[in-house]
Amino acid sequence: MAGTGSSTYEGFSAQERAAMKAHALDQKKAARRGSAAEKAAEAERDVLAKIAEMQGSDRVMAERVHAVVTTHAPALAPKLWYGMPAYASDGKVVCFFQSAEKFKARYATLGFSDLAKLDEGPMWAAGFALTEVTPEVEARIAELVKRAT
């Protein structure tokens, strides 16, 4: 395919490549597991291990997000998604936590996929910046994940 010569695309960043490799590894690992119960237990252990690897405030926020999601939306199953904690319905990700450190961002993110039922008219938020998980933020996350499912 011929280019115009004006493109400055240099490929995926190191963080993007690492996330894609983590996703491929997660998929291979999930395919090797036995029963559905074993797969679910292993997926949750993987999520908790990934959270434990996080540093500082990312780890604290991911722990709180995990606790809120698993308490208020028990139908969502924890799993890794591109190397980050995510919560799925029938294997499809509904919401996820993205650490600030991994992507060298200013803040962590709680994101929702298009499967989340958060629709509010012609436009609504599907991602939320997190700098701290306070009781008020926990209540908002609980409300969002309940609506999302």
What does this structure look like?
- The chain is built from 4 helices and 5 strands, in the order αααβββββα.
- The radius of gyration is 17 Å and the shape is globular.
- It is 46% helix and 18% strand.
- It has helices spanning 14-32, 36-53, 56-72, 135-148; strands spanning 77-81, 84-89, 92-98, 108-112, 127-130.
- It has a 5-stranded antiparallel sheet with strand order 1-2-3-4-5.
- It starts with 13 loop residues before the first helix and ends with a helix.
- β2 (84-89) and β3 form a beta hairpin.
- With 149 residues, the chain is an alpha+beta fold.
Return the structural class. alpha+beta
Low-confidence stretches: none
Shape: globular
Order of helices and strands: HHHEEEEEH
Mean pLDDT: 90
Note the gap between the termini: 43 Å
What's this, in brief?
The chain is of the alpha+beta class and 149 residues long.
Summarize this structure as a short list of keywords or feature phrases.
alpha+beta; 149 residues
